[in-house]
Amino acid sequence: MISSVGLVVLICAVAVNSLAHPQCNAVGIDEILGSETYTLEPAYLQPSIRDYKVNIPHVPQCTNGEIGVRAIICDDDVAPIGKLVGLNTLFINRRGNLENIGSVSVTVYCRN
User: Fold this and answer.
1) SS3 state of residue 97
2) Using CA atoms, how far apart are residues 14 and 50, in angstroms rounded to an integer?
């Protein structure tokens, strides 16, 4: 049988563990398996700002151009919503408390 102190410790451990894992959403356009990919440096979403526009640059290594893009958008409490407009613009809406920094990781898929 678990004691009440043990139960409190267990509940606190679960609560702290849930805060440590970010909540993420992924959005993508034409992700082509087998394509050469390039992961860009992460972009960071600053506290207190709900809406972002992220410009996705052309990747010089994609000599034949880009064919797709995938973005993983994370925040500490509620997963943000993302919408790609073409291959070069990502709109983000953060739905949580906006107290911490969020992140965006973008992978670009090259045309073969």
Assistant:
1) coil
2) 28
